[in-house]
Amino acid sequence: MKKNLVTAVWFTLVTTVIFGLIYPLVITGVSQLLFPGRASGQLIERNGKLVGSRIIGQNFTGLGYFHSRPSAAGAGYDSTSSGGSFLGPTNKTLIDRVNGDVQKLRTENPSQPAPIDLVTSSGSGLDPDISPAAAEFQAPRVAQERHMNPGEVGRLVQKHTRGRQFGFLGEPRVNVLELNLDLDTVHPLR
Amino acid sequence: MRWTEYAIAMLLSSGVSMTLLYLLERTQKWLPFNPQKFGNVDPGLAFGTAASFTTNTNWQVYSGESTMSYLMQMAGLAYHNFVSAAAGIVLAIVVIRGIARRETEKLGNFWVDMTRCLLWVLLPFCLVGALVLVSQGVVQNLKPYTTVDLIQPYTTQVTGAHGKIATQTVTQQVIAQGPVASQEVIKEFGTNGGGFFNANSAHPFENPTPFSNFFELALILAIPSGLTYTLGRMTGSQRHGWAVWGAMAFLFLAAVCTTYWAEAKGNPLLAGADQRVSALQAGGNMEGKEVRFGIANSVLYATVTTDASCGAVNSEHDSFTPLGGMVPLINIMLGEIVFGGVGAGLYGMFVFIVLAVFIAGLMVGRTPEYLGKKIESYEVKMAMLAVLILTFTILAFAAVSVVKPYGLAGISNPGPHGLSQILYAYVSSTGNNGSAFGGLNGNTMWYNATTAAAQLFGRFLMQIPILAIAGSLARKKIVPESAGTFPVAGALFSGLLVSTVLIVGALTFFPALSLGPILEHLLMQAGKVF
């Protein structure tokens, strides 16, 4: 018993140093060497300022921008408080929220009806993507607000649509932040 | 070591490392690698978290990104992902040795087994796997959180003190960082499941692409699935290993199909939105799911993580449709034996194998034998003890929670869903899974104390009877196979094993399920909201 207790203490200390310190620090060093951008969060810089991470969603409210999905992370897309709404499928709060958003989208957009991902919050609250259906749904509104040719907006959406990975994994998606940044470059809001 | 000494060494190892984790949590303020200057963790939460990570449960009632320093994540939490996984694996190996060895008290040395498992199984895979994850975009750094300027600032309404609603302009986003990949890989490979971030594997920094998702799924199932092969190999009956694997695979596929069916149909109460599946969208019930994963990959992850006692999530099980959410619940209720946790899945299934062999023996009227070892009353008693401890822990704590105000206070979704939330909490804790119907407010004295107790019972009170069976089997002589021996290979045995698992699970939990998810499903179809 006593012998095993002493072994337990030594075992814990030695393995903590190996697996708790050396291992993660080695991985950090090698990652920073091999994939410096990816290991640091794929930050996007515009005009000398950091404007976001390519894979962390942001909130957009202006009618001239493509909107992200509703977010339950903090006050919305708060990356220090990630998480979903945790509302159950029969919770009145959820049903009222979704129906309210469907109504709001109906008044803002000429197209019908709203795709489901645009009125539901993601599990992380930081979803960087919307479905191609949700982008198509919003394109006429964005074109109108920016006085752009709908075909031009459609081409930008196409450009930022990613298909399934290797052709079969996951779902097709559109990165909202990258699309909006590109819109601002091609045809700034006036 | 005899089985008793092995058990003592295992308990001492867990006890010492759990104490160290608790102390680290209570002192993180004064320790290095804390760029966000997080304070010390409160005692209740620190104890709950220490119990949860030591038992390979990783039930979390805190947000990692706003509570734990980088040192805690690396040397506290990720470290426990390694040792708790290794402790599970070596126990499964001891059980197999018990079956394979004859007329001996010796089952191996705990410290030797642990060291081999950590250095030669877990570490090499994690070194490579972590880099694969970084290549997909999982972050790995020690920087303070990054602040970025939004291209379109916006105003939002926040509810301040005294319920006053104030308007606030948001111009910046703070992007949480950290040494994520090194923890992510062992979180999956060791079926631990404790997320670096609150959103766990739904977070784009933990699981950025469909390929990282697929890779994580493969990591989760690798060891539990592979151990059935080890079982066959070490006992000299490879066909028996495959029969056990077949039973697991059958239960797994049944669960994936059911959940997919429920989730892809969508929520009839949200008929105002377009939930159809098309080339342009995944459709279905998207609340709590990520666009890049859609329905199929969310459902697959939910099944894998609950079958394998992992508990990592890439979608919010709380927001699944009633039947879609019931399947993960059932997966854990069956005892985490559909592949199950690393090691824990195999020794959990071993209990059901003993029962299945015993029942088959009763049916044909012979003393049951298992791979040449007689299964006698001692083994069956210990197996039943393990089953009863799990079910009693779940049902007793859940029953108290649904009648006492301090239990009911945790519910966030009213109606039958509230019962499902409480049930899931204790099923997940006892089964050492760690996923949750996340709306439940588990960070209260009652839930911290009882879920921690459930985790410790579910882990150690289950392991001890199982070690006792292993010790008893190792002492026995080998009985040569005869015409009357019930074969433990082939489809017949797989079928018998599946039936045993389902009968035990259904008899125990059907009443609770009918009042929770099944009732909610019927009410949802009738258009009722709560």
Describe the overall structure.
The complex is a heterodimer of chains A (190) and B (530). Chain A is mainly alpha-helical. Helices cover 47% and strands 8% of the residues of chain A. Chain A has two domains: 2-36; 42-186, no CATH class. Chain A contains six helices and five strands. In chain A, a hairpin with a 2-residue loop joins β1 (43-46) and β2 (49-53). The mean pLDDT of chain A is 94. With 530 residues, chain B is mainly alpha-helical. Chain B folds into two domains: 3-139 and 180-525, no CATH class; 146-175, no CATH class. Helices cover 60% and strands 5% of the residues of chain B. Chain B has a two-stranded antiparallel sheet. A two-stranded antiparallel sheet of chain B has the order 3-4. The longest helix of chain B has 35 residues, at 491-525. Classes of the chains: A mainly alpha (190), B mainly alpha (530). At the A-B interface, α1, β2, α3, β3 and α4 of A face α1, α4, α5, β1 and β2 of B.
Main-sheet strand order of chain B equals 1-2
Protein chains sharing the most extensive interface: A-B, 104 and 127 residues
Instruction: Report the strand count of chain B.
Output: 4
Number of helical stretches of at least 4 residues of chain B: 16
Which structural class fits the helix and strand makeup of chain A?
mainly alpha
Percentage beta strand of chain B: 5-15%
Along the chain, the helix and strand elements of chain B come as: HHHHHEEHHHHHHEEHHHHH
Q: Roughly how many Å apart are the termini of chain A?
A: 77 Å
Structural class of chain B: mainly alpha
Radius of gyration of chain A: 22 Å
Main sheet: strand order of chain A: 3-5-4
Q: What is the total number of structural domains of chain B? A: 2
Backbone shape of chain B? globular
- Helix coverage percent of chain B: 55-70%
Number of strands of chain A: 5
